[in-house]
């Protein structure tokens, strides 16, 4: 770390470093693909990285060597369009329990049904707005959005792209429409009833809705398009399904019902040059990024809480460890689109606990990775505590890997290589602990 400098990528230094970040993305992607890790990284690209840099709601952190080459980077994002591809919070507001929760917010059933139906109608208007905008951008489909849909399916052998242009723009522009409405509480209602479809309406209103008999073309196209998108995320075409949560949550999901794109920060991407590894570098960059986002979030005195989110592939243990280092231990295993299933991780930090949280992260980085730009002094007892907690965590993960490698239906299975890596880390931590204790003895 002594040969690296941690910097924020800003409008002022963008010209100097942006192309180097883009090149680093390519190096990391090529390395991962050589290792067989296909589909675990999607390059963000120069235009999007620059957009993050120029946005007041996002942070890009980089580590540069003595030659000013970028060796690591992370993108921390906040304020995405609600319920788009990047909105992780929506997966925690899905299912029967969430429907019951929303219903419990109403004094009577009639008000609940009224809001559900009105929001559904607004959603159809949002769809029409999005459809018209998409078709204007893609005149090659002759004003027929279903031709766009058919094109994407055929192009990927009846599967959507991992990042479908149609699906992403449909969500983005629908959200854009909702944001433009001045009506009181419509955004709140849209969040509550985002997953509502014709089948849900039929269930609530006690009658069958036959989509094929609806004369309104926009409604029919909307329902068919949404169903096809859902189906191709789940590799099941024309089945009326939403997302799929594979395993029952082992935590209280309701504490995340108030999370949204405005109060949630996503640890979006963190990459490090595979030819210049530095222990803890990804964690250091993420810490600096989320620290800035958290402090900025609470400049608004009305904000009472913040949520940290991340998404990763189940077999990507290194990403899991980074997320869990920062307390993102609650997670769902979801099928959210075509491609690999994902772990979506989350944690909640109350305003009154922010200082404690940041101090704990800072202390861990000081002890475990010798990152201490502020020259903060820690007691021997504090150092021992941090190392012992980390040893406890690593041993627990080692047991999981050894157990789950025999049964790949369980969470986070590993292999022999992962086992050996964990054992080496535990040995290093034990050596660190021993050195601290020996130093303590000498100072007595």
Could you outline the blueprint of secondary structure elements for this entry?
Elements: E1 5-8, H1 14-34, H2 46-54, E2 59-64, E3 70-78, H3 96-104, H4 109-137, H5 145-155, H6 165-180, H7 186-192, H8 198-205, H9 217-233, E4 244-245, E5 264-272, H10 281-297, E6 305-313, H11 317-325, E7 330-335, E8 342-350, H12 354-369, H13 380-404, H14 416-443
Parallel strand pairs: 5-6
Antiparallel strand pairs: 1-2, 2-3, 3-5, 4-7, 6-8, 7-8
Helix pairs in contact: 1-2, 4-6, 5-9, 10-12, 13-14
Walk me through this protein's architecture:
The chain has 444 residues and is an alpha+beta fold. Among the domains are: 95-242, no CATH class; 379-444. It is 50% helix and 12% strand. It has helices at residues 14-34, 46-54, 96-104, 109-137, 145-155, 165-180, 186-192, 198-205, 217-233, 281-297, 317-325, 354-369, 380-404, 416-443, and strands spanning 5-8, 59-64, 70-78, 244-245, 264-272, 305-313, 330-335, 342-350. Strands 1-2-3-5-6-8-7-4 form an 8-stranded mixed sheet, sandwiched between helices. A hairpin with a 6-residue loop joins strand 7 and strand 8 (342-350). The longest helix is centred in the first third of the chain and has 29 residues, at 109-137. It is globular, with a radius of gyration of 24 Å.
